[in-house]
Every structure is written in C-alpha cells, then in structure tokens.
Specification:
This protein has two domains: 1-108; 109-199, Leucine-rich Repeat Variant. Helices cover 60% and strands 5% of the residues. It has helices at residues 3-19, 29-47, 64-67, 73-86, 91-105, 111-119, 126-136, 148-153, 159-172, 180-190; strands at residues 50-54, 58-62. Strands 1-2 form a two-stranded antiparallel sheet. α1 (3-19) packs parallel to α4 (73-86) and α7 (126-136) packs parallel to α9 (159-172). The longest helix is centred in the first third of the chain and has 19 residues, at 29-47. The radius of gyration is 18 Å and the shape is globular. The relative contact order is 0.10.
Length: 199
C-alpha cells in the first residue's frame, strides 16, 4: 500500500487503537482483540523489509515505512506505545512490532519521531519503558546531545532498562550539561514517582 492510502487509513487505525476496537460490545473482548491484532499485522507489514525486482535482473531491499516520509510514522509510534500500555494480551506482539518499526525508520528518522520515543522512556509502566528503549537502540541520537528522559532511565530500578539507557548514552555521547537539573523539573511534575525516582 502506498503512502497516500496508508495516510488515509491512519485515522481509522488510530480510532481502533485508542478505543480498543470499533463497533464492538464491551463484553466482546475477542472481536476487539481481533481488530487490534489486524492493526498490528498491518503496521508490521509496512515496517518489514522485502525484496523487489530491480532492473535489469537484481533485487533491491525496500521498506515502505522507510521509503516515504508521507507515512504517519509519529502516529504509528504513538499507537504502538498505546497498545503496549493498555492491552496486556497484545503487549508482547506490540513490543516486537515497535522494535521492528524502530529498526526500519532509524536511518531516516526525524527529530519529532525520536522525541516521541524518548518521551515514553519515562512512562509509568516498566514494560513500556523497556519497549521504547529497545526501539531506540539503532537510532543515531548524537544530534540530541542531552536527553533528560534517558538520564532518568539510566537510574531505572529495572536492570535491563538501566542498561539499555546507559548504552544509549555511551553510544551517542549524551553528556550531562551543567544546568541539567532545570530540565528534569518538568518531568517530575508530569510523571508519578515510580521506581527509580525514589533514589
């Protein structure tokens, strides 16, 4: 599916994700999960690498989400994070898709897309933090220079999350500026004091 068609369908996908299914009775969890599963499969299909025949007799690898910025990639990222946070039965599958999307877009990512993932690195749920930190691993964040979200994640009580965050810092040279305290204050007002903020 081309970017324009995907963009037309994006509002529908967003509604399915945000409402946990459309035109589904509250007690019909099976149909709701089926809609969400199809949505995940749809996103995964567009993030997967595939080979296409190139002239004259060779194959070239292509990924639809990478090839065109018309795709609503920020909306895709937000939707996947929402599923991970709100749909426990689909969380593992959604994490895998988010990591795959991260791997697909990292080379052509915009600052807005990077910031979308970074913002969720301090999410309330430990598994959301883990998912976005995994998805961020292949990104080049050297232009970011400093991320208060990654700094906080470095002190996560979850050992794996802390390790993933420290790896991001080390590989991207995310150094702590002298006036770093002021950039942490807004985060303390926005998020609850979970786990690592007690230290």
């Amino acid at each position: 599916m081309d970017a324009s068609t995907f963009a037309l369908l994006a509002p529908l996908l967003k509604e399915i994700i945000s409402k946990g299914g459309l035109a589904v009775a509250e007690d019909n969890e099976e149909d709701a999960l089926e809609q969400l599963t199809l949505t995940l499969d749809f996103i995964k299909f567009h993030a997967a690498e595939r080979k296409a025949l190139a002239f004259p007799y060779s194959y070239q690898t292509n990924c639809l989400l990478v090839s065109d910025h018309v795709y609503p990639r920020v909306s895709v990222l937000e939707g996947l994070v929402h599923i991970i946070a709100r749909q426990p039965k689909l969380s593992r599958e959604a994490v895998a898709v988010l990591v795959e999307v991260g791997g697909a877009i990292h080379e052509s990512s915009t600052r807005e897309e990077q910031d979308t993932l970074l913002r969720h690195a301090t999410a309330q749920e430990v598994y959301v933090r883990n998912a976005v930190l995994q998805a961020l691993q292949p990104f080049d964040l050297t232009d970011v220079e400093w991320s208060p979200e990654v700094f906080i994640a470095c002190h996560d009580d979850d050992e794996q999350n802390g390790r993933l965050a420290r790896q991001l810092c080390g590989e991207n040279g995310l150094e702590i500026p002298e006036e770093y305290i002021s950039s942490l204050v807004p985060l303390l007002g926005e998020y609850s004091f979970y786990g690592y903020l007690h230290h």
